[in-house]
Amino acid sequence: MNGSDYINIVTKTIAEAYETQKEEIKAAADTLAETVKAKRNVFVFGCSHAGIIAEEVFYRTGGLAVINPVFFPAMMLNTRPITMTSSLERVPGLGKIIFEKNGIKKGDLLILHSVSGRNAVPVELALCAKENGVQTVCLTNIAYSKSVSPRHPCGKRLFEVCDTVIDNKGCIGDAAVSIVGLPEKTGPTSTAVGAALINAIIVDAINRMIEDGVVPPVLMSANLDGGDEHNAKIFAEYKDNIFYM
What pTM was estimated for this model as a whole? Predict the structure, then answer.
């Protein structure tokens, strides 16, 4: 198998995930739309590479200005040594601190991305959300998650503790390409599939808001004429829901 096969696998995985998860994607989009309409807050979190999805959707051309990333520096990819991210995402109690220090409150929405869904931090964030009346949506891999043991003391994985669960339909272990002579697989799919799915949720949420007669706070590119002025109006209107400025 080669790079062309990888592209085909990613394309097919995106299509399979979307086709099989339409109801869950609609539920997530409806929750996102209702949260924005109510001028409640939206947060996105992931550890290490899973956090790339949070970076994808905030302050994004064509995206909703009110999506806030939850960045914990020691779990981001610029951390050194990078292996610390794998250690910290397993620590019970840390998710509760992250939840509390980011001011996530009742009526808000928390979107969580974890491919294995087994580690303590994202599970704990979801549990804290449930205790505090915060809606949760997760992007995960259910087959992968079921194949591994949970690392949070509650004994559950992410798909077992979230309100809306979207399966990325990737391979167990994430890497999808087998090459003759190499025992390990290569070509992970979760970032590409996760980015496609979360953007599909956002597009559907925007459609829902328009159907309901609400002007969605969609950002323009700052490199288009008029983009800065357009975005400044949104930042002013939604200043109480934007925490990355």
Answer: 0.97
In the chain, where are the structural domains located?
A: 3-238
Query: pLDDT tens digits, residue range 152-193?
Result: 999 999 999 999 999 999 999 999 999 999 999 999 999 999
The predicted-structure confidence for 101-150, as pLDDT tens digits, reads as follows 999 999 999 999 999 999 999 999 999 999 999 999 999 999 999 999 99
Closest CA to 60 of 35, 34, 42, 79: 42
Instruction: Give domain 3-238's CATH number out of 2.60.40.10, 3.30.565.10, 3.40.50.10490, 3.30.450.20.
Output: 3.40.50.10490
Q: What is the 3-state secondary structure (H, E, C) of 182-236?
A: CCCCEEECHHHHHHHHHHHHHHHHHHHHHHCCCCCCECCCCCCCCHHHHHHHHHH
